[in-house]
């Protein structure tokens, strides 16, 4: 999963694509109307079939709903951008503190591994001693 | 066919520049010496070899050209004004404060809403005066560039935040690892103690030399265990004490 900013940028691109496809749909499927009542309504020979008025309305409705959903998604992403209200200095301070903690934990771990190794060799000794008694 | 593949593969990674072979330990040392004391004793030829080891000086100016692109020496975000684009959002009043990110989020929200509004206006303009659309399109473009610029300005903030998350995760993993190691060690020690104890219980008659020895050895070991519990006792002490068994 990419980070939030990249997600946000991808979503914006998608939003723009929706803009374009919406314009395209309106452009390609709108009905024609006469400029004055005496004129006969023309039809576009390039597009003999255009959707009926109700079809057109419902598609527009659907497209607008999609647009609103996408906008909400973008807004949610904006809201959830990490580290809101934290200053750079606080972040740097925290990073340094975590760095120290990480270092001390690493030391602790080395210590733990060492005592584990000691125990291991001790157990080994016991086993060797025990088996040599058996032989 | 196979020849073609070969040539493809050899073209994938160009050979290193011929002067790499001058980067010997000897030459590097020589270079450092000549840097320190300005040794003029060296021969001309050798100096020429050393020239390969000194990095070239930076070209003049703020930018350089590479692979057909112009690059800046110092990585920085170009300002919107420098790119000739109108800046639609304000800078926060106090720059270094913790409100910076909050402010950016607020501005992003505003820009997104005006983007939507502008789209609506484009549709309106298209229906009434189609030849005027380019003004609105230009405005949408400006808004979008502004949004992306704001997002990119936010990136350093986010990367620091991700770094913090990553470190916290690492600390957690390390803690768990240590705990597991310690638990396993404790279990093993408990088991050994238990075994010794049961052994002593079974053969614990005091009038046998063997058993006394076992007893003391067991005691030693128990003591040792208590002593040890994750303090720095070295392994030789184990061996010495164990020989008593």
TrEMBL record, chain A:
A Pfam family reported for this protein in Swiss-Prot or TrEMBL: Med21
One function term, GO molecular function aspect: transcription coregulator activity
GO BP: regulation of transcription by RNA polymerase II
Keywords from the named record: Activator, Coiled coil, Nucleus, Transcription, Transcription regulation
One CC-aspect GO term: mediator complex
Coiled-coil region list: 88-115
UniProt-annotated location(s): Nucleus
Major site of localization recorded for this protein: nucleus
Subunit structure: Component of the Mediator complex.
Function, in words: Component of the Mediator complex, a coactivator involved in the regulated transcription of nearly all RNA polymerase II-dependent genes. Mediator functions as a bridge to convey information from gene-specific regulatory proteins to the basal RNA polymerase II transcription machinery. Mediator is recruited to promoters by direct interactions with regulatory proteins and serves as a scaffold for the assembly of a functional preinitiation complex with RNA polymerase II and the general transcription factors.
UniProt family annotation: Belongs to the Mediator complex subunit 21 family.
Protein name: Mediator of RNA polymerase II transcription subunit 21
UniProt source species: Wickerhamomyces pijperi (Yeast)
From TrEMBL, chain B:
Ranges in a coiled coil: 164-198
Protein name from the UniProt record: Mediator of RNA polymerase II transcription subunit 7
Gene Ontology cellular-component terms listed: core mediator complex; mediator complex
The keyword ATP-binding is assigned to this record: no
Protein localization: Nucleus
GO BP term, example: regulation of transcription by RNA polymerase II
Pfam families assigned to the protein according to its UniProt record, in alphabetical order: Med7 (PF05983)
Organism the protein comes from: Wickerhamomyces pijperi (Yeast)
Function: Component of the Mediator complex, a coactivator involved in the regulated transcription of nearly all RNA polymerase II-dependent genes. Mediator functions as a bridge to convey information from gene-specific regulatory proteins to the basal RNA polymerase II transcription machinery.
Annotated family: Belongs to the Mediator complex subunit 7 family.
Subunit structure: Component of the Mediator complex.
Keyword list, A-Z: Activator, Coiled coil, Nucleus, Transcription, Transcription regulation
Gene Ontology terms, MF aspect: transcription coregulator activity
């Amino acid at each position: 999963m990419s980070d939030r900013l990249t997600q946000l940028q991808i979503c914006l691109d998608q939003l723009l694509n929706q803009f374009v496809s919406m314009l395209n749909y309106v452009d390609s499927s709108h009905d024609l109307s006469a400029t004055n009542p005496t004129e006969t309504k023309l039809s576009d020979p390039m597009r003999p079939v255009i959707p009926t008025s109700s079809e057109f309305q419902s598609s527009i409705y659907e497209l607008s709903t999609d647009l609103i959903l996408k906008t909400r998604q973008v807004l949610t992403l904006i809201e959830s951008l990490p580290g809101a209200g934290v200053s750079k200095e606080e972040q740097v301070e925290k990073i340094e503190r975590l760095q120290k903690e990480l270092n001390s934990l690493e030391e602790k771990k080395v210590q733990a591994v060492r005592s584990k190794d000691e125990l291991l060799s001790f157990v080994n000794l016991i086993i060797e001693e025990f088996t040599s008694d058996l032989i | 066919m196979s020849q073609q593949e070969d040539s493809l593969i050899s073209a994938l990674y160009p050979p290193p520049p011929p002067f790499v072979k001058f980067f010997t330990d000897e030459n590097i040392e020589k270079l450092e010496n000549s840097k320190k004391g300005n040794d003029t004793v060296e021969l001309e030829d050798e100096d020429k070899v050393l020239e390969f080891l000194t990095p070239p000086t930076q070209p003049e100016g703020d930018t350089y050209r590479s692979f057909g692109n112009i690059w800046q020496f110092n990585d920085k975000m170009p300002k919107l004004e420098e790119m000739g684009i109108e800046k639609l959002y304000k800078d926060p009043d106090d720059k270094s404060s913790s409100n910076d990110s909050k402010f950016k989020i607020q501005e992003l929200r505003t820009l997104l809403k005006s983007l939507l509004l502008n789209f609506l206006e484009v549709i309106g303009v298209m229906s009434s005066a189609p030849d005027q659309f380019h003004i609105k399109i230009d405005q949408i473009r400006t808004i979008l560039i502004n949004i992306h610029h704001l997002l990119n300005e936010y990136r350093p903030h986010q990367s620091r935040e991700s770094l913090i998350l990553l470190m916290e995760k690492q600390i957690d993993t390390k803690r768990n690892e240590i705990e597991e190691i310690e638990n396993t060690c404790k279990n093993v020690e408990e088991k050994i103690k238990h075994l010794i104890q049961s052994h002593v219980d079974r053969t614990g008659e005091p009038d046998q030399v063997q058993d006394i020895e076992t007893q003391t050895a067991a005691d030693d070991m128990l003591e040792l265990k208590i002593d040890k519990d994750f303090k720095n006792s070295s392994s030789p002490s184990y061996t010495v004490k164990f020989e008593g068994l």
